[in-house]
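Mods, move this if it's the wrong board.
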Amino acid sequence: MSRIGRQPVIIPSGVTVTKDAG
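Not the wrong board. Structure tokens:
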């Protein structure tokens, strides 16, 4: 997994959340 700090990802639930990788 690449660390881009904050990258928007779409979870199976159908909701776009911001994953804090940094």
